[in-house]
Amino acid sequence: MQLAPTPPANAFVYEAELGVDQELFPLDLYFCEDCAHLQRLDLLDPWVLFEHYVYVSGTSPVFVKHFEDYAAFVMDSYKPNPGGLVLEFGSNDGTLLDFFQKSGMRVLGVDPARSISEDATARGIETICGLFGKELGEDILATRGKAEVICANNVFAHIDDLAGVVDGIRNLLTPSGVFVFEVSYLGDVVRNILFDTIYHEGLDYHSVKPLVRFFAAHGLEFIDVLPVPTHGGSIRCVAQLAGGPHAVQPSVAASIADEEAMCLDRAETFRSFARNIDALGAELRRLLNGLKADGKRIAGYGAPAKATTFLYHFRIGPDLIDFIVEDNPLKQGMYTPGKHIPLVPPSVLADAKPDYILILAWNFADAIIEKHASYRQAGGRFIIPIPAVREV
């Protein structure tokens, strides 16, 4: 399955860099008919992708509340020993770890984004700037001891050496410890046409059946799978050391049965997925082209990583979108990767008054529409493109 080649999804540029061509890299996906795992094979240097990362969880009230509830779930469900270590890799600005720290746990983050990890440490969430793996795990074990809880959120799909990472997790966990991670769920990606969640940061597109098999080969067992609404559809997975004290929940077997019913273990499912993506893109382009032909002004809202895939695969550029409103101050004043659509603060809306706003951060559509009720009351309209094109 092939999506349009793009620059790295977060390769935003400043005005002075607009004259520099940005290299495009393939977005091709490959399906393993043996284990039913879907992944990309073309690798980019993770330091290129993540060292100067500009996304921070703390700018989204939706995610702050999500992580508060997440920490409470772990503490209530698995009752880690008070004062024990909670390690998160891909910890970003430490939003989740902050809630564990407030619950009385010691915390440690690992993240390759240099400035973000430094800022997190300055705020009291100690963060190692690095990429977690077996070797770094051994260093942490030697200096901090074993972890009661290890977390990884929206990062487990970004790892080339999954075997080394899982081995590092196994070596670090206490006998009663748990590894909890959230990841975009392949079942939801296919069902809801969430194709734009596929970009260069992601290498793996996870479903439960292959994960259970993979973890078992590395001395860990799945004990729970819960659906979560983030990113249009994700799963929260919990694993422990093989033979650990926590009961395996029925959700694991139920998830595998659901995936088999969806035919996620068959290549034809992904050929059909590609056809559905093309049909959705054709419908959206008809709408946008019609609006432009009628003299309407269109803006975008949100510049998450998935917007790069979306804009390239659906061939949407500054000819259709005048600018993109972005809440993250780190991105304001920059331009989108390759397409070079300007990113502006929300305050611009009051003067610019676009007729339509295409919500590229569609997973936050409800919050965005509520936040800008005055725009809507003044006659402005929103377009939500996924999982189906609709106007609000």
Provide a descriptive summary of the structure in words.
It is a single chain. This protein has 392 residues and is of the alpha/beta class. It has 2 domains: 37-264, Rossmann fold, CATH 3.40.50.150; 285-391, Rossmann fold, CATH 3.40.50. The chain is 36% helix and 22% strand. The protein contains 14 helices and 17 strands. The strands form 3 sheets. Strands 6-5-4-7-8-11-10 form a 7-stranded mixed sheet, with helices on both faces. The chain is globular, with a radius of gyration of 21 Å. The protein starts with a strand and ends with a strand. The model has no long low-confidence stretch (mean pLDDT 92).
Which key terms come to mind for this protein?
single chain; 392 residues; alpha/beta; Rossmann fold; 2 domains; seven-stranded mixed β-sheet; six-stranded mixed β-sheet; 17 strands; 36% helix; 22% strand; MeTrfase_14; transferase; SAM-dependent methyltransferase; Methyltransf_Zn-bd_dom_put_sf
CATH third-tier fold name of the largest domain: Rossmann fold
CATH class type of the largest domain? Alpha Beta
Q: Determine the N-to-C terminus distance.
A: 32 Å
Q: Low-confidence stretches at least 5 residues in length (pLDDT < 50)?
A: none
Helicity, as a percent range: 25-40%
